[in-house]
Amino acid sequence: MTEIIEQGQRARQSARKLALLETSQKNDLLATIAAALRANSTAIMTENAKDLAVAAENGVTEPMMARLRLDENAIEIISQGVEQVMKLADPVGEGVNAWTNEAGLKIAEERVPFGVVAIIYESRPNVTVDAAVLCLKAGNATILRGGKEAIHSNRALVKVIQAALRAFGLEEAVQLVQSTERASAKQLMQLNGYVDVLIPRGSAGLIQTVVQEATIPVIETGTGNCHIYVDASADQAQAEAIIINAKVQRPSACNAVETVLVHEAIAATFLPGLLTKLQQKGIEIRGDETVQSLNESIVPATIHDYETEFLDLIIAIKVVDSTATAMNHIERYSTKHSEAILTNSYADAQLFKKGVDAAVVYVNASTRFTDGFEFGFGAEIGISTQKLHARGPMGLTQLTSVKYVVSGDGQIRH
Q1: Start and end of every Aldehyde dehydrogenase domain (predicted)?
Q2: What structural domains and CATH numbers belong to the chain?
Q3: Using CA atoms, how far apart are residues 383 and 254, in angstroms rounded to an integer?
Q4: Which of 62, 245, 275, 336 has the highest CB neighbour number within 10 Å of its CB?
Q5: What is the pLDDT of residues 350-372, one digit of tens each?
Q6: pLDDT tens sequence across 28-39
């Protein structure tokens, strides 16, 4: 029997125990984990330094290094995130709907845990803690399979979490696949009978591999090739500030803007200032012919640039002749994550909202708000870009299913 199958069996046993816990008991688990993370911060940072050293040797970019780095501040933020999840309402047992049918049966629809949630992800060790505590609060056991980039960090974090859970007899409610070989990921993708749902987080390649090869249900969390369209009627000062925020504040995030589309009516007045300010922030700009004509240092944009989630200090800019043209561009290149229009036209805003197919559509705001915390969900498990079960930021409620509880007093069907 392989190690991953054994982990699946242990997770299934833990899930049965978790399903019986009251909210207060789950919150006690999380409080213990938060305290343990703080108490073991030095040991966690020591292991994280090993991952950082390997990343530096491999020439990893600074935005990606930032995703990987765990210092005292990062660990404190992660610990506070655990405590924020404690404060969130427990969805388990929540009544979704209830009615009495003609036979006098009382039918109630209630939220219940999935059971066992598996998560395959890359490079970001904070996901290890976010995923574990969200699953625990929603009553789920979890099997985590991180990437080789953060293996030392992930092992340290799960070791701390398991030690905290040991006092509750639930040490195996959170488990880490120790191997980073591709074979281990594939085996987890096909762990039928043990895993109820699989959630991939990471690059487009990883997500598509999981979607194509998994034999268990998958909730697809998508990459973020996000767009901002600046309409002719937009407040140009406001638009400039939004674009700079969406690109610069955290370029390695999946909700950072990657392509800006600008209406041709304002290109000559709006773009020169925007281009200069982006360049002052260290952004490499890849533009079409119109954009290039406004600044000689612009790199010519290619179809590949419009297709790419840069996750870096790079942005593509294109001039379009209408809202409809902007929407057509987005339809072709969007990963259906987050899309924004900046406009003072009610008609154009309505057209964009109705016509753009994405998990989150913005009017006059930065795409950086697509986040479980910003939406009031607490830490998130990911941003779902699919349409079945969950879409957008996935918090506690999205980590549950439902069941029907039917109460009667002897009814039989005739």
Answers
A1: 9-281
A2: 3-221+381-407 (3.40.605.10), 226-369 (3.40.309.10)
A3: 9
A4: 336
A5: 999 999 999 999 999 999 999 98
A6: 999 999 999 999
